[in-house]
What does this fold into?
Amino acid sequence: MTGVSPGSVALVVTSPPYPMIPQWDDLFRAWGAAEFEAMHVELDRVWAACHRALLAGGILAVNVGDALRTVSGEFRLWPNHARIVTAAEKIGFRSLPYILWKKPTNKPNAFLGSGFLPPNAYVTLDCEFILLFRKGSLRKFPPGSPARIASRYRTEERDLWFSQVWEGIRGRSQSHSGRRSGAFPPEIPRRLVRMFSVVGDTVLDPFAGTGTTLWEAAKLGRHGIGIEVDPTRARELERERRRRNEARSRGGPG
It folds into this structure.
């Protein structure tokens, strides 16, 4: 993220690789991190870079799930959300009330463990976290800011988006062009961009993946910056950016 100027970003919206989830094991191993704490140390570097990139009052939004995994014969919960909160506050972020994304794809009667015999069953993980942090105090705007007025949301949007539990948003397929990616549905970054930025702002995703945050930001009149470590995925993003720019130049949907 050396190419991102300090204080140039108003909002970060991202869904990072989840530590202790098998899907991302190979990626973390490539970074030399095979254990829970080492994985999060790699993510800590990203949150610190996001803090530098954000302007005063800017917001960091992180979609992450906890992990269930058996290690050395012991079944354990790995609380990714708690570890990220701890790291972000040490970096200098201020925690805000988080959002629980209740994913409708989970079976309502699923369970883990011993079935109907107590006490060795486990609660299923039906929710992921959308953690919210602010850099410093409230962001300041000049009185009557046109960009802020143009970014206004309706009453029904405010009442839905600013409730703590989000339901009815289905995750995307984790396979894209034959490659694995996070199931990050467009509705989540769309809401977050509307809630925590204004028209003309710059939105950053340090784990750009298929570009969901970037495309939603562009649709809403924001600028987007995406960082992607996978060179194949990065080339796909660049091709898609050019295609959308060409479509806009021809007057089509971009």
Notes: The chain has one domain: 9-249.
